[in-house]
Write a structure and sequence with these properties.
Helices cover 43% and strands 19% of the residues. By secondary structure, the chain is of the alpha+beta class. The protein has one domain (5-194).
């Protein structure tokens, strides 16, 4: 039976906003994806927004799927992974992260990255069953791309095309700032004031 490994930072530093997990003990794919998929995808968005384009080529974001489970706590997130581990009999890739961008939020999320629509569907079904066992009020959903960056600009992911018109141009400056922070291109402004 496959096992799910959680980044050791969860056990040593409970203040971590996001904790990675994967079915590989060294989290190889998760770490590899950051530099081979996520950074190039986010950089692609940044460069097009910076150029002032009104239509953006979504590139990898168009075929990037996330299955998301909303829970009450970090402990429930770990419990969900334990429940999922019990159901993993077929080889299905499991990787993602759990936590919250905003530590003050009442809820936490578990975000699973999937390789395609078929894997997304299988994982969604399994997670719906697991989530119900952990917390009957848990919400399970799926979407394309990184919600924090793409959804505000392009609206409902269900209507996206590979080249998409920016639906909310007034959000572009805030998204550019968010990308610089996500990619550590710019120190947090409060840190800059102290330097």
């Amino acid at each position: 039976m496959p096992k799910i490994f959680i980044d050791k930072r969860y056990f040593t530093d409970r203040k971590t906003k996001w904790v990675s997990f994967e079915d590989n003990p060294r989290l190889k794919e998760t770490k590899g994806d950051i530099y081979s998929r996520c950074v190039p995808c986010i950089t692609n968005l940044y460069e097009q927004l910076k150029q002032g384009k009104e239509e953006v080529r979504l590139g990898p974001a168009f075929s990037c799927w996330k299955v998301v489970v909303v829970l009450e706590s970090m402990d429930e997130c770990v419990e969900l992974l334990t429940e999922l581990e019990k159901r993993l009999v077929d080889p299905i890739k499991v990787k993602g992260r759990f936590g919250s961008v905003d530590e003050n939020k009442r809820t936490k999320v578990v975000v699973f990255n999937t390789a395609g629509e078929m894997q997304r569907e299988r994982l969604y079904e399994m997670l719906a069953a697991c989530a119900g066992r952990v917390n009957p009020s848990a919400e399970v959903s799926f979407h394309r791309g990184c919600a924090e960056l793409y959804h505000e600009l392009f609206g409902n992911w269900k209507t996206w095309r590979e080249e998409e018109t920016i639906r909310k141009p007034e959000a572009v400056p805030a998204i550019l700032d968010r990308i610089r922070k996500v990619l550590f291109w710019e120190k947090d402004r409060s840190e800059q004031g102290r330097s």
